[in-house]
């Protein structure tokens, strides 16, 4: 299979072998070499800054993912294949439709996490995270768990500004619904 065929979108079913085949084809084309192994170093085989930039662009065109030029340049061929494949998997996960999350789902996640982090399993809507033993380290853990559980990345400062269960639930519901406003923005608007 020639380098041009490796870049075509046909037959790509998301396997690491597809990425490997593509990368070997592009490396061969860019470097003018066919003696490549998993341990080949792009720069030791004749690559330079312009060629690695072209490689990044070709990866983006072929797979629709952005890989870091810096990260890619530090890796051998086998590691580049793994990096591109992992980027594709992350991209596919983000693009997959997320099941609808209700306010009740959010409240249940928060109550479970408050119970685990604070030993306070049944907080009321007005319960304050910090009055029940929470601190900045625990709120950081809570933010990470929310991201993992609900797929919502939010700044720790927003959670610090929303200490009650009701405020945290409202903040998360707004973010999930697509309202890209932070708590600090909401407070400024109400002043």
Automatic annotation (TrEMBL):
SMART domains in the cross-refs: PKS_PP
Pfam families assigned: PP-binding (PF00550)
Gene Ontology CC entries for this record: cytoplasm
GO BP field: amino acid activation for nonribosomal peptide biosynthetic process; antibiotic biosynthetic process; secondary metabolite biosynthetic process
Domain of life from the UniProt record: Bacteria
Keywords annotated in UniProt: Ligase, Phosphopantetheine, Phosphoprotein, Plasmid
Keyword Glycosyltransferase found: no
Protein name in UniProt: Carrier domain-containing protein
Organism: Streptomyces finlayi
Classification lineage: Bacteria, Bacillati, Actinomycetota, Actinomycetes, Kitasatosporales
């Amino acid at each position: 299979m020639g380098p041009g065929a490796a870049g075509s979108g046909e037959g790509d079913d998301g396997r690491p072998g597809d990425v490997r085949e593509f990368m070997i084809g592009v490396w061969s084309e860019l470097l003018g070499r066919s003696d490549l192994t998993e341990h080949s170093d792009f720069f030791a085989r004749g690559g330079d800054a312009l060629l690695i930039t072209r490689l990044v662009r070709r990866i983006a065109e072929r797979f629709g993912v952005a890989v870091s030029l810096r990260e890619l340049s530090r890796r051998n061929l086998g590691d580049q294949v793994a990096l591109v494949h992992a980027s594709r998997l992350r991209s596919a996960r983000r693009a997959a439709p997320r099941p609808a999350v209700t306010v009740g789902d959010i409240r249940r996640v928060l109550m479970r996490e408050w119970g685990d982090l604070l030993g306070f399993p049944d907080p009321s809507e007005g319960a304050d995270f910090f009055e029940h033993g929470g601190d900045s380290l625990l709120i950081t853990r809570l933010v990470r768990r929310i991201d993992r559980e609900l797929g919502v990345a939010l700044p720790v400062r927003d959670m610090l500004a929303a200490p009650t269960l009701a405020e945290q639930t409202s903040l998360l519901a707004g973010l999930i619904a697509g309202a890209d406003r932070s708590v600090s923005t909401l407070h400024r608007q109400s002043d």
